């Protein structure tokens, strides 16, 4: 009886260890993979915990999404105030401020906010700001986020310029999230070379709109062509060994005069090679 109870306890213990029934943290996924299929081992399996999150969270990281089709201006301004100035505003609070301090009648008439409305609201918050015109080099080098108007997909829109790197312009779009344009395309959609800046003392600036690794999602064609067909699973000598095993063997005379086995019979591997026409 004791042996049966002990056996049952051991079976329960090993089953518990084999099947992970511990409570998992939210958003965690466990996957198991073979460490190296070429080597026999009692520890061939590797298990790792991976935290996952909806892609839309990263897509709109640091961005206040516009609630209405006409509210890109208020959403862009809220994004800039929160991410660069350190304010903690909702889009609705910004909209109320723009309506209160901006040109209310014109806002209602055109169903949109202007850079002048933004300037007046920002002034009410005790900050200096202004709209400027400049060349693309001025925008790329000025070193701080800015609201820029663009004409894109048939409509006028406000986005927040985040930075420029390696020929690409990265913006926080209240409608589409964190996106990028190549330099030429951005200059085509940039309206009147206009930008809106908020002056903030260096010690008070926040970096929530700074570029990070998650923004660098663009992969150019050259990179795809270079790495798409690279096989890095096995070393070259192993692939050579497999190719030799799959080839036809022919007995020939060694024609290498510098070889110690010159003139002696030797086996050669005859492989098949395919070439595109």
TrEMBL record:
Q: Per its UniProt entry, which superkingdom is the organism in?
A: Bacteria
Q: Where is the Peptidase C39 domain?
A: 66-197
GO cellular component term of the entry, any: membrane
Q: Which CDD domains match?
A: Peptidase_C39G
The UniProt entry's GO biological process terms, in alphabetical order, are: proteolysis
Q: Which Gene3D superfamilies match?
A: Cysteine proteinases
Q: Which InterPro entries match?
A: Peptidase_C39
Q: Cite the GO molecular-function annotations of the record.
A: ATP binding; peptidase activity
Q: What is this protein called?
A: Peptidase
> What species is this protein from?
Acinetobacter tianfuensis
